[in-house]
Structures are given as structure tokens and as C-alpha cells.
């Protein structure tokens, strides 16, 4: 009944504004009888619901810019991993230079302080820029990290606290986009943006990361999967909870905007600076503006100065109110833009996927219960080594500073893996003492399409020794 009334309001209203106001009034009255009791949340849910309903009933096709055939990209048999142009046998010469990183480290738990410090120290370099975003709820952790980063050597480590994060909600994406915008402002020189968490640690030497990025410089790493299903409901984060709201008349899911290819994947993306700049285009000039836009959604959309049309803004408006938009925004933007030919379908992170479990505690703050990988301990070593031997993983999660077995595993086994080089990153006949000079040397490489396939890590190690990278794995 409610849907018929809302649909009538949309179809018969002379203007979209009048339709929205009619819908909002009807929706608010219904929400007073729901579990959403806070008036401010009732207003927010009603506003977002009616905006989405109006968009569904009056759809506007997305003007994407991916040169690939959308139907081919959306096919379940098509791997969206970026297009590699034909090289016709020619070689591309690149300088083996150190690539500066803009690293966003999302921190939430005071108990993880020692792990946060260890992670930063493990691949710190003067050319990098680190931003540790501390959850707004963790004031003590912020103070401790500020004291630690006050050391002169850590002048490129910035600690800020801006967003209260709840998994499955828009706030996690707000923290990521806040961090990205801040890093773009803090440094004009970094080449790659990456997202890490306070439970991540390196499982390879930092030089390995540098070599992989150098082989694929210009491309982003986004583990993307095209979704063939509609989101079941709208997700609205308000106050202390992420609410699920089904769209009446669309029991099979929320319709997707015409010409939009919806994609999803791991939040732990590694983005080339060009893509990072593209991803925040039109979302605000400061980190605070970007975070406010994501937090408020449509009610804030008119208060950001915008010089022209922004595909990032269009995609954000579409995915923002689905569950876990942090696992959707960058992926959907990539496959609907010219960057669909400039990214690789890969995730540098290892975690025990078979051990994933439902985080029952998440039910206290979201209608979309979240999963979580198990804590890594010494029993995880055989699996980690097996995956590490066959895939170029660089980070692993999750480590827990309150778990003695996890910390012991990190200090012994994982530390050995990181320090153990065996000359794998040296060119033939090169001594370890000469490695400093290698950063300015020249080498030849074909354009490489990195895949998570058997033997990829071993082949990647041989590529540098031979001075040429194979075109596929």
C-alpha cells in the first residue's frame, strides 16, 4: 500500500521536488511505527529512500567512458582486470626508481598501537607520506600516535581523527575518501595510494612492493568483480546504526541505474595517483568536505562547488547507500570509466578466507552483519607460505596485539619472511652491497598483466633477474 501511494506521488507530481516532499511525508509517518525511533534518523532515512525511489522511477542513464563493450564487461565469463595494449614485440624501457607512496592506515583500536607502529616502521621511507586515520571514537589512541609521530624522523607520518567508522556503512568510505583527499593535499609527489588497516603487516620485504609497482607503473590494483545481482535493500547509516530499508515494489532488489555496471571487491585497493585524483573529482576540495558529502548524502549534494560534471560524483551517488560502499565505489568507478583499461584485478592482501566467520558483535550496530577473517597465528604459517609461493601477496591480516600466539607468529615467522631475501630481488651477478645503485639503473620490461595464478610470484622474481618481464603469467 505504501509503495502504491509513493509511486502515485512520483508519477503524478508535476515536479520532482513536489514528488520528493510527498514521498518524504508518507515515509516519515510509516517510519514512526518502525524500529527506527530517533526523529533525526527517520528524517534521514525518509529523505534517502525517497531520493532513490525518484531516481528508480525516473532513471537517468549513466554517461560512462569505458571503451570496452558494457555487455561484455558485465558478462560472468569476462574478467574485469584491465586491458593490456598490444606491444607488437617492442620493449618498454622504464627507470627502476623508488615510487613514493601515499599510505592511508585506518586505525580503530587502542590495543593495536604496537602493530600500527610496527607496520609503519616496516616500510617507512622519507619519500612516502603516511596518514593514520584514527576512528573518532578512539581519542586515547590518537594521543598516543601523535606522541609517537612527533619524532623528527617521522615528520611524514600524520595522525588525524575525523570520522566515526561503522563497518558496512558509508562512514568507512567517508574515512577512505577523507584520507585520499588529505594525502593528495599533503604531498604532490607520491605515485600510489594504498589503504591498510591496523591489523595488517608486511609478509615480504618492502623492496618487493616497490618492484611490483614499478613493473606496472601507471596501473591501479583493484580486485574487481562485476555484480550480476541487485542490492537487496538501501543502507542508511544514522546515529549509532546502519539501517536496512527495502524498497517497496522491488522485492527482487533495488534497480540499477541504466548503463551502470555495478562492481565490488576488496576495500584494500592500490591506486595510481591519476586514478586517485579522478576518484575525488567533484567531491570537495578538502578532506572535511569530502567526509561531509559522504556522511550526509543528498542533503549535502548542493553545497559542494563543482566546476563541471563528475563521473566520480555520479557513481558515488549511486553506490553510497548500498551496504559496504567502500567495497563498491572504487570498483564501480573503475569499470565505468576510461580507467577500466588501466587497472589490474588483484589484491595484495592475504587472509584465511576459509576461516572467515560471522562477526556476531556487528549485529549491535548494523542490519548487515559483517564477516571477519580469523586471527593469524603460528598454525597459519603453512597456508601463508603456500599462498606466498604462488601469488605475489605483500600484506597479511589479521594480526591481534592482544593475542600472544599472533604476536609470537609475527615476531618469529613473519619477521623471518620479511627479512629473508635469498637474492630474489637482485639482478644476476649483483651483490647485495650494490643494491642501492640499482634504483637508478635501467631495465627492460614488457607491459605485464599481473594475475593471481600459480607461479606468479616465482615468475615475478625471475623477471627482474632476466631484465625482462613476461607478458602474462
From TrEMBL:
Its EC number is 2.4.2.26. One of its GO terms (cellular component) is endoplasmic reticulum membrane. InterPro entries: Glyco_trans_14, XYLT. Its main location: endoplasmic reticulum. It comes from the Eukaryota. Pathway: Glycan metabolism; heparan sulfate biosynthesis; Glycan metabolism; chondroitin sulfate biosynthesis. GO terms for biological process: chondroitin sulfate proteoglycan biosynthetic process; heparan sulfate proteoglycan biosynthetic process. It is a single-pass type II membrane protein. One of its GO terms (molecular function) is protein xylosyltransferase activity. It is an enzyme of class 2 (transferase). It is found in: Endoplasmic reticulum membrane; Golgi apparatus membrane. Keywords: Disulfide bond, Endoplasmic reticulum, Glycoprotein, Glycosyltransferase, Golgi apparatus, Membrane, Metal-binding, Signal-anchor, Transferase, Transmembrane, Transmembrane helix. It catalyses: UDP-alpha-D-xylose + L-seryl-[protein] = 3-O-(beta-D-xylosyl)-L-seryl-[protein] + UDP + H(+). The keyword Glycosyltransferase applies. It holds the Pfam family Branch. Belongs to the glycosyltransferase 14 family. XylT subfamily. PANTHER family: XYLOSYLTRANSFERASE OXT. This is protein xylosyltransferase. It comes from Symbiodinium natans. The lineage of its organism: Eukaryota, Sar, Alveolata, Dinophyceae, Suessiales. The gene is sqv-6.
Amino acid at each position: 500500500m505504501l509503495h502504491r501511494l509513493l509511486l502515485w506521488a512520483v508519477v503524478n507530481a508535476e515536479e520532482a521536488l513536489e514528488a520528493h516532499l510527498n514521498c518524504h511525508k508518507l515515509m516519515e509517518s510509516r517510519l514512526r511505527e518502525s524500529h527506527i525511533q530517533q526523529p533525526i534518523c527517520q528524517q534521514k532515512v525518509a529523505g534517502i529512500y525517497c531520493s532513490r525511489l525518484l531516481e528508480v522511477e525516473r532513471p537517468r542513464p549513466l554517461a560512462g567512458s569505458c571503451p570496452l563493450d558494457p555487455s561484455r564487461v558485465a558478462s560472468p565469463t569476462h574478467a574485469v582486470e584491465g586491458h593490456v595494449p598490444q606491444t607488437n614485440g617492442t620493449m618498454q624501457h622504464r627507470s627502476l626508481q623508488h615510487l613514493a607512496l601515499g599510505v592511508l592506515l585506518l586505525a580503530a583500536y587502542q590495543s593495536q598501537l604496537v602493530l600500527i607502529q610496527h607496520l609503519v616502521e616496516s616500510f617507512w621511507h622519507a619519500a612516502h607520506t603516511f596518514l593514520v586515520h584514527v576512528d573518532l571514537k578512539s581519542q586515547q589512541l590518537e594521543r598516543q600516535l601523535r606522541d609517537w609521530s612527533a619524532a623528527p624522523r617521522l615528520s611524514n607520518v600524520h595522525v588525524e581523527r575525523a570520522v566515526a567508522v561503522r563497518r558496512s556503512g558509508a562512514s568507512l568510505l567517508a574515512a577512505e575518501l577523507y584520507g585520499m583527499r588529505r594525502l593528495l593535499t599533503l604531498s604532490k609527489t607520491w605515485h600510489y595510494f594504498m589503504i591498510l588497516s591496523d591489523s595488517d603487516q608486511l609478509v615480504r620485504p618492502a623492496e618487493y612492493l616497490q618492484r611490483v609497482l614499478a613493473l606496472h607503473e601507471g596501473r591501479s590494483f583493484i580486485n574487481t568483480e562485476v555484480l550480476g545481482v541487485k542490492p537487496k535493500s538501501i543502507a542508511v547509516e544514522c546515529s549509532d546504526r546502519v539501517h536496512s530499508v527495502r524498497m517497496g515494489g522491488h522485492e527482487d532488489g533495488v534497480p540499477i541505474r541504466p548503463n551502470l555496471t555495478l562492481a565490488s571487491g576488496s576495500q584494500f585497493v592500490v591506486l595510481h595517483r591519476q586514478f586517485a585524483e579522478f576518484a575525488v573529482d567533484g567531491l570537495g576540495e578538502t578532506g572535511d568536505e569530502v567526509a561531509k558529502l559522504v556522511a550526509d548524502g543528498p542533503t549535502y549534494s548542493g553545497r559542494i562547488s563543482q566546476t563541471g560534471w563528475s563521473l566520480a560524483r555520479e557513481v558515488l551517488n549511486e553506490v553510497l547507500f548500498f551496504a559496504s560502499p567502500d567495497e563498491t565505489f572504487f570498483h564501480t568507478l573503475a569499470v565505468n570509466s576510461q580507467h577500466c583499461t588501466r587497472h589490474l584485478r588483484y589484491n595484495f592482501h592475504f587472509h584465511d578466507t576459509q576461516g572467515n566467520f560471522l562477526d556476531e558483535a556487528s549485529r549491535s550496530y548494523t542490519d548487515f552483519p559483517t564477516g571477519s577473517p580469523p586471527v593469524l597465528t603460528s598454525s597459519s604459517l603453512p597456508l601463508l607460505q603456500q599462498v606466498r609461493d604462488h601469488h605475489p601477496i605483500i600484506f597479511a591480516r589479521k594480526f591481534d596485539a592482544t593475542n600472544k600466539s599472533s604476536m609470537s607468529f609475527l615476531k618469529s615467522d613473519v619477521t623471518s619472511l620479511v627479512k629473508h631475501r635469498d637474492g630474489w630481488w637482485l639482478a644476476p651477478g649483483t651483490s647485495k652491497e650494490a643494491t642501492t645503485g640499482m634504483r637508478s639503473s635501467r631495465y627492460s620490461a614488457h607491459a605485464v598483466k599481473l594475475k593471481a595464478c600459480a607461479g606468479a610470484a616465482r615468475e615475478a622474481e625471475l623477471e627482474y633477474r632476466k631484465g625482462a618481464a613476461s607478458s602474462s603469467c
